[in-house]
Input
Amino acid sequence: MDFESSLPAGLGFRPALPDDAAWIAELRAVVMRPDLERLGRWDPVRVRERFLASFQPEHSLVIVVDGRDAGLIAARPEEDATWIEHFYLGPEFQGRGIGAAALRHAMATTQDGRPFRLNVLQGSAARRLYERHGFVLESEDPVDVFMVADAADGCGPGTLPPL
Output
């Protein structure tokens, strides 16, 4: 089956632009606040500044649902891995398979044989999504869980997990 035709109806992607930074920083604050508060790490200024300091639109896709900008996912290449980062989806779009489809899309369109890496906050529900897509624990600390997925283990367009 053609990967693009397997996307949920109304889901698309567009390249991120530098002008997207402000609204994405706000979205990041909204979606990360519950986990950061639970971990005692919530700082409304820092959560936005960290995004703005590291946003690389050239490695990022805006997730579009029914013509509305709904989130972001980045796949940033490094020498030894591709990092999945800045993966945020508006609360009103969560729980509908959109995040899973966006993750599969990012992995399928950037696969080049390097493993995928990411980090997720301790106790975040997003960890289950990553585990369903082949990510396993690499290391952890009191705040972050670092995960890795082998590009050969289910990351190709024809072998990605179903919705």
The first helix runs from residue 21 to 38. The first strand starts at residue 11 and ends at 15.
